[in-house]
Amino acid sequence: MKRNRLRRMVSILLSLVLCLTVLTPAFAEETPAQEPAAASCEVVPVVVVRGMSFNGLTQAIGTEEERPAFEFEIGPLLKALARVAWKGVTRMSARAALEEVADYAYDLMKALTINDDGTSPYGTGMHDYPEAAGNYPDLCEGIPDELGLTHSCIDAFGGDHVYYVNYDWRVDPYIIADQIHASVERAVRETGHDKVNLVCCSMGGIMSVAYLTKYGYERMNKVLFMSSTFCGAQVASDCLTGRLEIDDQVLYDFFDTLTVDNKAGNLAIKALKFIGVFRLLEKLGTAILDKDIDLIYDRVLVPIYGYMLPLWGLCMPEDFDAGLDYMFGGKDKVSADFLAKAQALQEMMAGRDALLNDMIASGREIAVVSGYNQPLNPVYESAGWSGDRILEAYQTSGFATVAKYGETLSDDYIANAADPALISPDHCVDLSTAHFKDYTYMVRNGPHVACSYGTEYAAFLIWMLSTTTSIKPGTDARYPHFLESNNAMELHPLK
Length: 495
What we know:
It is a single chain. The protein has one domain. The protein contains 18 helices and twelve strands. It has helices spanning 2-22, 74-90, 94-109, 137-140, 145-157, 173-191, 204-215, 234-240, 248-258, 263-274, 277-305, 309-314, 320-328, 336-350, 352-361, 393-396, 411-415, 456-466, and strands at residues 46-49, 58-59, 67-68, 162-165, 196-201, 220-226, 365-372, 401-402, 429-430, 440-444, 482-484, 492-493. It is globular, with a radius of gyration of 23 Å.
């Protein structure tokens, strides 16, 4: 499980990691709405909207040439490292070596590229699972993350009452909204129910906001946001505005907690800190970013990620214009169609709170589940914030006040808190600022998405989906506002 998560992160950050380690020498078709037949059971169908994953992205999809879009092989990496070292030494030029790193990173990830019109130059896409999830054995057998979550739902509600939305996270969320709509309509048609429970995982948050904005909430019973981007993502804002940063303490915290269950690995990380390796990496990374950040963006980040519309929806509104300036040189440098779609996503996110509040007022239920007290990917300015390793708790919680990783809220802040009951027992979170505070769970050490099959975290999810009472925190004594998890996803109230 940890290897899968690490692989996901590495694929995004590879070019920068290589910079830090080798340069010392110098992102469905719509089904018409149909009224369902009378429900024959009391099990509400579940539609799972998965998150971003490089696994499953397929190049030349639908052809005899299809293959994984992202293929990491040790041989090409070693050759690239050799070229980097050679140029770094023979030319005594860090920029020449960095050019090799950028070329390798681009070649590795180029099949992810999206054109400004939303098409893929490499025919890259995701395979769909349109039928009920029980028809797909690979989903039934999945253990971690969204597959484990889906596996748990199949066990609890039956494979004919669970649907899995596997989508291309690189394209316009309003296009994915059509795919979610098709799954929702199929679920109500095939199960005989008029409503579904929607589970939105990670990047599935913004996709589900697009669905609710475009199609409304008539079909919704409950909507669960699990480690979700429904309120954006700071990592998108920082990366789109060029706010990359290397900090030795953030680097150490990330690798220290990553190896916490590996005694030998953890001792090695502590030794590297003791001898100053992380300080050296900070100095080296800062020097590269100060001098050559333009190369990293021009050769890798802009061509691969620049036109992925979901990232522009995740960007914080205060950073949107700055992002367009940094990535493209201003609004006039991108097509009118792309700009209109990006701005439409910003408007969609601006209308999110009113939409969800209307949904709640109509009798639907929501729950927001956010992990915190885990370090984040250590290459952007806000990486010192607290999160779940992938996303910042500030956004996944719907804007709760969360202390930085390794810190607590100040004594003065706690003494003047508007509602002491909404301060976490560890003094790291104030839920009073969260937009949906009455519906939000904060999980200390909660892994991203979590809910792996067979865990207590998965049992928590099944309770939220199956209970006939309210799913507000505290309704069940086992699940108050503040919870604590461990790497085995054992869950209990935070004390």
